[in-house]
Design goal:
160 residues, alpha+beta, two-stranded antiparallel ribbon, 39% helix, globular
C-alpha cells in the first residue's frame, strides 16, 4: 500500500474507531459502511476498497475499539475534547404521531422538525403515541435515540 493511502486509511481507521458502534449494538458487529454516512465513506476513499479489504477493516475496528480506543479516551487531549463536546449536546423532543418501533432503516420524524434515520440493522416493536425521546452522542461519538419511557435506544443519523 502506498504511503499516502496508508496515511489516509490510518486516519480513517482512527476516526472510525472513535466514532464506532455503541454498546447498545453489541449483537451487531461494527461495519464502516453503516457507521459512516455515504458522504463520509466516499470522502475517505473507502469506496475503492474491495469487499475483503472492507471486512479486514471491520475486523481491525473491532479489535481496536476493544483495546486501544478506551486508552485514547484517557490519554489523548484531542479525544477528551471531542468527548466533552459530544456530551454537551442533548436533543429532547417527541416522535411526531404514532410510533411502532424500528426495523432496519426506520425514519423518525420529531415534533421539533428534525428527521433521524436508524443507522444500523435491528428491530424492536413497541406502540406509543408521540413518545418522548432523547438524542445524544454515545461515548464513541455516534448519535443514539433513547425512548424516555422504557429506556430502549437505537443508533441514529440525522438526515433533516
Amino acid at each position: 500500500m502506498h504511503a499516502p493511502r496508508r496515511t489516509l486509511l490510518s486516519s480513517l481507521l482512527l476516526a472510525t474507531a472513535l466514532l464506532g458502534a455503541s454498546a447498545g449494538h453489541a449483537a451487531t458487529a461494527p461495519d464502516v459502511r453503516e457507521l459512516m454516512s455515504p458522504e463520509e465513506f466516499g470522502a475517505a476513499g473507502l469506496g475503492r476498497l474491495t469487499p475483503a479489504e472492507i471486512e479486514a477493516l471491520n475486523a481491525w475496528l473491532i479489535r481496536y475499539t476493544a483495546g486501544e480506543a478506551p486508552v485514547l479516551r484517557a490519554s489523548s487531549p484531542a479525544v477528551r475534547e471531542e468527548v466533552r463536546k459530544s456530551e454537551a449536546t442533548v436533543i429532547r423532543s417527541r416522535i411526531a404521531g404514532p410510533f411502532e418501533g424500528w426495523s432496519g432503516r426506520t425514519l423518525f420524524r420529531l415534533e421539533n422538525g428534525q428527521v433521524w434515520q436508524q443507522r444500523m440493522s435491528g428491530s424492536w416493536r413497541h406502540r406509543a403515541e408521540s413518545p418522548e425521546v432523547e438524542i445524544r452522542k454515545n461515548l464513541l461519538g455516534m448519535w443514539e435515540m433513547r425512548l424516555i419511557d422504557g429506556g430502549r435506544q437505537v443508533g441514529v443519523t440525522r438526515i433533516e
